[in-house]
Predict the structure.
Amino acid sequence: MKKVLSVILAVAMLGVTAMMFSACGGSASSGASSNASSESKDSSTTGAKELHMATNAAFEPYEYVEGGQVVGIDAEIAKAICDKLGYKLVIDDMDFDAIITAVTSGKADFGMAGMTVTEERKQSVDFTDPYTNAVQVIIVNEKNSPVASADDLEGKTVGVQLGTTGDIYVSDVKDVKVERFNKGADAVLALTQGKVDAVVIDKEPAKAFSKQNPGTKILDDPFENEDYAICLKKGSELTEKFNTALKDLKADGTVDDIIKKYINDK
Ligand code: ARG
């Protein structure tokens, strides 16, 4: 399975990269959560330089909007890193497939969005060391689902979030029809409406989406393990600093505490 998946990923990513590049522009910060910092926007009082984090805040528990703020594991780890390095964090919310372009174009200083490290993405950005890992899962309707395992995806209509590893994986399944959504939540909505047979997405957001949509369930058939890391512009001096900060925050238990605050069984 592992080998097969790597090959699939390698092939499929060529296509996804093309999509990523064509998707730049269009997705500016969403009003409600364009600035998630809990402190004042004005950094002149502290003199701290701002760092802009590009994310897609529709991915609970990693990043989601609550009370007009972007909260979640990534938001908190990013804040801890910025605090350590003496920067003020500003979170810019956008479509997931616009994040890498935001980083490569310098519109954002880094991208953090439950983003999986892939060889293809490494061609355009640098990644920090991983801060956690994850797995892709399949969400189906509890009743009368034509999909009971990964093998059943063949020939089915499957919903994914555009430009994600779920998209990459599903796109290479035989005879599959892929329905791509800007938000995972919209893919799951389509599932409840019978418009897609299954949704492939990261496990923790899948749990949140499934909970929000009674009548859906997650199959006990997880795919390949993936590492989540922060992406930065190629050659950025920040990468090294982020890695040092991350190492300290892992060593003193901060990263674990943040993850456990949002994920009960981790
Ligand atoms: N881990 C997957 C990937 O990197 C999905 C990430 C989606 N993240 C988000 N914030 N919507 O492709």
Observations:
- Residues 1-44 have pLDDT under 50 and may be disordered.
- The chain is about 35% helix and 25% strand.
